[in-house]
TrEMBL record:
InterPro entries: Citrate_synth-like_lrg_a-sub, Citrate_synth-like_sm_a-sub, Citrate_synthase, Citrate_synthase_AS, Citrate_synthase_euk, Citrate_synthase_sf. PANTHER family: CITRATE SYNTHASE, CITRATE SYNTHASE, MITOCHONDRIAL. The keyword Transferase applies. It is found in: Mitochondrion matrix. It comes from Molorchus minor. This is Citrate synthase. Signal peptide: none annotated. PROSITE patterns: CITRATE_SYNTHASE (PS00480). Homodimer. Keywords: Transferase. CDD domains: ScCit1-2_like. Transmembrane segments: none annotated. The keyword Lipoprotein does not apply. NCBIfam families: cit_synth_euk, PRK09569.1.
Amino acid sequence: MRSSLNIKLMSLLFDSGAKSDSLKKRLAPQISLILRQLSDSSTDLKSVLAAKIPKEQERVKNFRKQYGNTKVGEVTIDMMYGGMRGIKGLVCETSVLDPDEGIRFRGLSIPECQKVLPKAPGGSEPLPEGLFWLLITGDVPTDAQVKAISKEWAERAELPAHVVQLLNNLPTSVHPMSQLSAAITALNSESKYAKAYSSGVHKSKYWEYVYEDSMDLIAKLPVVAATIYRNTYKDGSGIGAIDTSKDWSLNFTQMLGYDDPEFIELMRLYLTIHSDHEGGNVSAHTVHLVGSALSDPYLSFSAGLNGLAGPLHGLANQEVLVWLQKLRQQVGDKYTEDQLKDFIWKTLKSGQVVPGYGHAVLRKTDPRYTCQREFALKHLPEDTLFQLVSNIYKVVPPILLELGKVKNPWPNVDAHSGVLLQYYGLKEMNYYTVLFGVSRALGVLASLVWDRALGLPIERPKSMSTDGLMKLVKAK
């Protein structure tokens, strides 16, 4: 596949052939140009996808026929009781999380995506539209292809009247994530897939209608999310019209009420890096699971949002900020390193964790943390809260290593994202997971299209009782 060639070309630049920074800089524009030229020149994403799907269906069919009985791992009792951690039991084409390298989107790391994905005129961060094209096709898109997606999403963005009425009638006391989930569920009235399924469309066509729903849903998400923000935290005034000449992030940020070019660039980065994290996390797995029952993308994604709202998943960035506020209240802004260490040890000895540190899979600093740190170093190096986060980055890992119970003492994405949002004035912490949800739609819906294209069946693992497991162990 063309995506394999993309990865090989990238490896020439980043892994083997270009050892020096100067050579990397000289080769980067040429490699980027080659990658863009490799992608199908059509700006119609659906037609590009339609050409790829039969080839991938045949590739998967032949692979399963030849290797279907091959074992890929073992399941232990600890895995069964421990949340299925480490069990290889899902297929996710869009991204893979390596414990040592971090996330790769269709084989490309975050720094590689930042280099090769199209950017807004004058911008330095990748456009989420480009990442979506990469996730769903495996190809790095051209500027023209990304502009076509921006325009198409803007044209699909209008909400039905009943969803607008629902959002405007919800009390502001309802959590923003509950409002988002309710609105997405109500949008299922617009599902083209549900209508096609009811009419008896052949299963080979399912992916086409899931694709249409996914494109509609991604297009409408910023409008829903901005309406929730304006209703809950501002004066409830209208969000303004969608501009078909602007990109997805720019329209979203301006609907929220922000015009700072730096903040718009941050939103492009934020919506890109939070989009996907392979298939086993709660939100991605939930969308896949509910979708496997042939529920439409609106119902599937709404279910995933309810998982994302949990404190062990998308709500974690809010918990980081709450913890940072407690720390600042105790030590002030003119603290010593010893004061930071004392507070961290008190946190750990009280039975709590240091929020934003550790990850179920990663065994290094999360690349999503690193790229946000680089953004902060570029745009807000003197910010007090950023400096606190930087100093915590110096002292927490050694403490966790000394504790001896933590496999990953390094920060994850949640340790940094809230700090950046605070700096640019978006201070309403309860809203942060909504931003995460808007971004996560890109990855999980791209995966859902492929679930239906490959005809993946309903997910139904076998469960056992403790008594049954005890008998099994004794028998062995």
